[in-house]
Fold this sequence. Notes:
Elements: H1 6-30, E1 40-42, H2 48-57, E2 61-63, H3 67-75
Helix pairs in contact: 1-2, 2-3
Amino acid sequence: MLEASDKTAERLRDNWQSVTGEIFEACHAAGREAGEVQIVGVCKYVGPELAWQLGQAGCEILAENRPQLLWDKAEY
């Protein structure tokens, strides 16, 4: 299971900015609103702290295929 660190948090923020920037550009080129696109962060195989850091980076929707693990992450 992947764990969180300060370096990981920085990488998540950088990746989030990159992905959202690419989505904005693609939507602009297609004549769509960027708000029409939802990004789902998959937090399978990561601990609660790393899932939390993904949320802190800007990801508002998380997915986990095992509900009991998602509940643990939500409580974090």
